[in-house]
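Milestone 3.1: sequence recovery, worked example.
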């Protein structure tokens, strides 16, 4: 059953990126992150109520709470970086870098969770690395060139923090229900996101958000909530080194919609890179 939840996570995650890109066209990425988190928090607590996962917070072990807190901070940092990169760069270049967190996650799972790296996994990591490199090389759009290379560093930051999120989250939900763990983590993300908005003095910009942007921000938050529900439900019973790669197949959904909605097209080299990324990911399921 965990593998079905993993694929469900990939589908919703892929939709999230497109909806978020639409929502941040005329809105600051930090504000979008903070607003989306409200929607995700509501969604996550609805899941807790529907599944009967409620439990006294003071009954949760300190170690579990600590890892959930750290996982929440990593998630918040990843989101802030990702949506900033998405606002500045092309979807079909930012997304592959973000999804390369697969490699970092497998390495961290090996170092900290003692999950084995087989020959197949090692080859898959090489394929994913080469594929990601091929997808982000050359032929950037005029929009991306105008923004410089800052989007690249934000995308890399997103990948690093996303990897930390997976490992810390895996440890944090070991002794509690995945839905409750997700809700607690989301609360941490919410506080972090709004602190960033306040510290940067951007709170006043909320009133300038258009109705269209509000709609896409809300839908993006709902898609993220669905992705999280599936992802952490899978992570609770399945191996992180397999679930994370499946989740990263959302790149297919994202790039497909990027072409339809934003008219972004892949070069021949980028298509070959995408094939390597997907091929390497599928190898991890063997």
């Amino acid at each position: 059953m965990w593998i079905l939840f993993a694929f469900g996570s990939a589908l919703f995650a892929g939709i999230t990126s497109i909806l978020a890109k639409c929502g941040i066209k005329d809105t600051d990425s930090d504000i979008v992150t903070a607003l989306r988190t409200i929607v995700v928090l509501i969604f996550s607590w609805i899941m807790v109520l529907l599944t009967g996962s409620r439990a006294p917070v003071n009954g949760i072990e300190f170690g579990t709470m600590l890892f959930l807190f750290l996982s929440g901070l990593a998630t918040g940092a990843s989101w802030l970086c990702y949506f900033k990169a998405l606002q500045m760069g092309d979807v079909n270049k930012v997304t592959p870098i973000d999804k390369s967190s697969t490699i970092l996650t497998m390495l961290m799972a090996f170092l900290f969770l003692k999950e084995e790296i087989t020959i197949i996994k090692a080859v898959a990591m090489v394929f994913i690395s080469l594929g990601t490199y091929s997808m982000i090389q050359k032929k950037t759009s005029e929009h991306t060139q105008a923004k410089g290379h800052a989007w690249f560093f934000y995308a890399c930051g997103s990948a690093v923090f996303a990897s930390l999120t997976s490992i810390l989250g895996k440890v944090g939900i070991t002794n509690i229900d995945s839905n409750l763990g997700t809700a607690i983590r989301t609360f941490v993300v919410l506080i972090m996101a709004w602190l960033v908005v306040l510290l940067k003095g951007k709170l006043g910009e909320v009133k300038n958000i258009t109705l269209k942007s509000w709609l896409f921000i809300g839908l993006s938050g709902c898609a993220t909530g669905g992705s999280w529900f599936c992802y952490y439900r899978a992570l609770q019973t399945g191996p992180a080194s397999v679930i994370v790669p499946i989740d990263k197949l959302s790149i297919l959904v994202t790039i497909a919609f990027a072409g339809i909605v934003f008219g972004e097209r892949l070069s021949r080299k980028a298509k070959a890179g995408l094939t390597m990324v997907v091929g390497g990911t599928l190898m991890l399921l063997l």
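The chain has one domain: 2-283. Residues 2-283 form one domain.
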